[in-house]
Amino acid sequence: MSTLALALVSLPFGLIGYAYVVYPSLLWVGVTLSGRASRRRRIVGATELPFITITLPAYNAERTISAAIENVLASDYPADRREIIVVSDCSTDKTDDIVLSYASRGVTLLRLPERRGKTAAENVVGRVARGDIIVNMDATVRIQPRSLSALVDAFADPTVGVASGFDSSVGTEADANGGESGYVGYEMWVRELETQLGGIVGASGCFYGIRRHVHDTNFPEQLSRDFASVLIARFRGYRAVSVRDALCYVPRTKALDAELERKVRTMARGLETLWYMRALLNPVRFRWFAFKLFSHKLCRWLVSLSLPGGIIGLAMLGLSQTAFMPVLVAFAGGVGLGIAGLRWSAAGQQPPRVLALAGFALAANLAGVRAWYRALRGQSTPVWEPTRRPA
User: Fold this and answer.
1) Listing from the earlier edge strand, what are the strands of the sheet with 142-143?
2) CATH code for the domain defined by 1-391
């Protein structure tokens, strides 16, 4: 029985160690030994910038859509080389009226007759887009004037099918969700390493570009397009890259409970998307890409799946062997701090730093477990509820 308990406890720790320490270390060693830097091959004879389509999916975004449009209009990308399409997912507030007020400045409103979700909105816009490159943005993020040009410039390399922006989590140090900033920075570092070794296995859903002929306009609406865009590109012989100069500011959500729901939705859709395109995990056919996809995505998600068993194993050891009792007590104390942090945040108050970090860790792990439960039960959520971020 103790052997089983030790195995249950060791599994999540082993997965965490491999996914978050060993795998990035292997990438770093690979980059160091190869002496590679991010290099791009340019299209010989290209004399003008590609025409692009910038899409902004929105649902009841009257609070943020105007600022989002102004942010795009302030980009240094030439106005005669781009079109801006706001896709309203059957909004019921003033979103559509606000977008229509920008018609004279080259902004087009595309309203869906019924609410069908973000992926459905992107399917529709893909059928009417005129750009050679489609750039998908969230209405709640902000980019620097140079970010759009930097993102599009990545496509000067003919091997690139998808280019992902470089996320920066922004907010105050007092945010209950302040732990998100460190995680985002870590994720961007890993993507940089992957880019230098062929390409990334997941794009930023907030800001990324894709070649129009790679953009699948009939993609299943319940799945995650930003993740799938990279997988589709690899199927078609392209790679995806992270572009450091394409900086994208992502405001942190103030409440941990809102962040919990976002993570559940994102991970559940990611699991369904990976299952739908599971052929890419074949190491014989896709080799290095399959290894990165397994290590970066699947192993991280398997941590959440193994957590319930790990907790059961820890309880078995703590109750049967006194040497493990302090570990069990410490774990219970950490969970208690996390619950306090979540309750504090749910009450609309700012928890102390220790409680905020414990609450963030607990929320992330709970989200993973719930996402697996939802995915295994086939509880698809195609209808989109955008994350309400602060201005």
Assistant:
1) 107-111, 82-88, 52-58, 133-137, 207-211, 160-170, 239-251, 142-143
2) 3.90.550.10
